[in-house]
């Protein structure tokens, strides 16, 4: 089982850099950061750019994989996103994992005062993924249903560098079909409304989503065992980092549901805050799981 830590990049880099060192030292396989222009859980707070933060984090770590969870299709476009991905992949020595999802309507509003519907956001997500594939194939021009590019004369990747692992976030049939067609992996946190679910309801939902990915792979002629299956736990009522026992139970239940990566929130804020947890819980849980 791969284990990941979700880092909310709300602090200046001279403080945040120590967190990435600690995440690597304690034994996590990957550290993820958010990709929001704004977010309702962080009013009045700083939130650093995802790819710039990851490039900096690569300089203070050696083994740790680094990723977005998830880059936002609400305001990203194929060519600039591919350039950021390729640059961080190069700087990090191939350690980048790009989680990519439809994103938040709030980011569309912050970016360009747009207010897309859920279907329109999904259309843009599909466009972005398909556009990325065209960039990697060295297309000079491409047109999707809403996004497009033309006149690209530069290479998509530095010599000797390959495209990073693409982890697509999906919760319904259309998104899971997109994973089956284009994703190296799949990510879920449970989807809309997860904050209101009881722990048992959460595990039921993500189990159904995992079965949905298997069905999507079968529809598209893909071996269902090939996509990495990543689960973010802790956004809702289920808090795996409250204790070592809760952490180990979450990992066991995720494994039973068919996931091969579990991501939890790295301690953020102060005791009593939403995403706070005791760093010793992380250290002890990873030790028991053989990560240190």
Automatic annotation (TrEMBL):
<dbReference type="InterPro" id="IPR011251">
    <property type="entry name" value="Luciferase-like_dom"/>
</dbReference>
<keyword id="KW-0560">Oxidoreductase</keyword>
<dbReference type="GO" id="GO:0008726">
    <property type="term" value="F:alkanesulfonate monooxygenase activity"/>
</dbReference>
<feature type="domain" description="Luciferase-like">
    <location>
        <begin position="3"/>
        <end position="229"/>
    </location>
</feature>
<protein>
    <submittedName>
        <fullName>LLM class flavin-dependent oxidoreductase</fullName>
    </submittedName>
</protein>
<dbReference type="InterPro" id="IPR036661">
    <property type="entry name" value="Luciferase-like_sf"/>
</dbReference>
<dbReference type="InterPro" id="IPR050172">
    <property type="entry name" value="SsuD_RutA_monooxygenase"/>
</dbReference>
<keyword id="KW-0285">Flavoprotein</keyword>
<dbReference type="GO" id="GO:0046306">
    <property type="term" value="P:alkanesulfonate catabolic process"/>
</dbReference>
<keyword id="KW-0503">Monooxygenase</keyword>
<keyword id="KW-0288">FMN</keyword>
<dbReference type="Pfam" id="PF00296">
    <property type="entry name" value="Bac_luciferase"/>
</dbReference>
